[in-house]
Amino acid sequence: MNAEVATEFRPFTSLTEQIADHLTQNIVTGTLAPSERVQEQNVAKALGVSRGSVREALLILERRHLVEIVPRRGAVVSSLSRRQLDDLFDLLEVLYTMIGQKMATLWDEEDSARFERALADIALSAEARDVDAYAQACEAFLHEAMSLIRNRYLDAVVDCLLPLARRALHRLIQLDPDLLPDGVRSWQSWHEAMAAQDTAAVARAVERCFSRHRATLTRTLAG
Description:
Blueprint: H1 15-28, E1 37-38, H2 40-47, H3 51-63, E2 67-70, E3 74-77, H4 82-106, H5 112-127, H6 131-149, H7 152-175, H8 179-195, H9 199-222
Antiparallel strand pairs: 1-3, 2-3
């Protein structure tokens, strides 16, 4: 594999997690392609870490649905087919609707500033066409909501899926760059529905967002 040289590792995050995050970024951005082998020895040499640490990191990536551990072949970057994207969008739509509707029932006007900061970052990154910054800002918005909902099981599910969602976003933006400004409007609509404590509007905002994602895939395949 063609592993990039890692920056100095951070002491406040475990070595295994840092390796996993490094490999995650390579998969999300396409540096590591679908079906490509992730060879422990090459990664360990490139990053200056042990093969055992790389092996543990690959188990994290497997939980994130970014690699598959294949007998006698090792770790292979997972594919991202139309069916898999549809399945991912189905699940994310349910989860985002659940989060938004729960926030609508808990809404306190004092919370609004926290979400408005994330919305401002979403808009700025979309204007700059910075997909990674856009994804980080969207995830920050989600984490603000989840910190108020305080459901550790929901946190675990969402955190596991966010890297895969980021990978899907990179793929979608390649197909349709206009998804970024449209996404800004979707997040703004979601926020407005939560602030209005309108659970039906929350569901409509999330459904419109993922309908656009699916339409992008359909239009590309038809073309």
